[in-house]
Amino acid sequence: MARRERPSWDDYYINIAWVVASRSSCIRRQVGALIVVEKRIISTGYNGTPFGVKNCDEGGCPRCASDAPSGAGLEYCLCVHGEQNAIALAARQGTATEDASLFVTTRPCFNCLKESVQAGIREVVYDQPYDYDDELEEAYQLLLEQSGMVMRRHPYSATHPVPPIAGPASEDSGPEMPSGG
Ligand SMILES: [Zn+2]
Ligand SMILES: [Zn+2]
Q1: What is this structure's pTM?
Q2: Does residue 137 have an active-site annotation?
Q3: Of the listed 5, 38, 58, 83, which one is catalytic?
Q4: Which pLDDT belongs to residue 170?
Q5: Burial class (CB in 10 A: 0-12, 13-18, 19+), 126
Q6: Ligand at shortest distance from the CA of 180
Q7: How far is the CA of 11 from the centre of ligand 1 (A)?
């Protein structure tokens, strides 16, 4: 029997991140993240309301349920981002995230980037891009530069089927993520 071609590590992890995203209850956008240390997945997270709060798709987050335009009202959004959940879950379980890689379905927001730096994550690999306004992008790039964080895109979903997600899948269909990304 011919030897089956195995997926690359990047394909493998990003594919799993999409499966993780499919568990999200956020009605705005579904994002999945996983933290990898020495090739082992030590934590996963998808975006949604905190433990004890009704799920986003059951009305748990008034902001997501409102008609707030994309990017607006984020300061009162209850949803925890997938990256934050992955970091918090590792903390909760007492698992070190030092020198880890973070694989995520959408480019992280600025806050998740800051938290990743502080969690000792050294590399972020994302699938789908996300655009920020110039001012934020400038701060984002400054943080990347000064922290030494390595960030790269692995556009897995451009060439592979991924589980259906609620949010816009294409980069030009309008930003929605920071509520849930
Ligand atoms: Zn939500
Ligand atoms: Zn975020």
Answers
A1: 0.88
A2: no
A3: 83
A4: 41
A5: buried
A6: 1
A7: 27
Q: With a cut of 70, list the residues of the chain below it in pLDDT.
A: 1, 165-181
Nearest to 109 by CA among 78, 71, 73, 76: 71
pLDDT value of residue 81: 97
> How many angstroms separate the alpha carbon of residue 27 from the centre of ligand 1?
5
Residues around ligand 2, an ion, CB closer than 5 A: 81, 109, 112
Q: Which ligand is nearest to the CA of 28?
A: 1
The per-residue DSSP string of 130-162 comes to: ----HHHHHHHHHHHHHHT-EEEE--GGGTS--
* CB within 8 Å of 92: residues ≥ 6 apart: none
State phi, psi for 38 to the nearest 5 degrees: 45, 50
Of 31, 34, 29, 26, the residue nearest 9 (C-alpha): 34
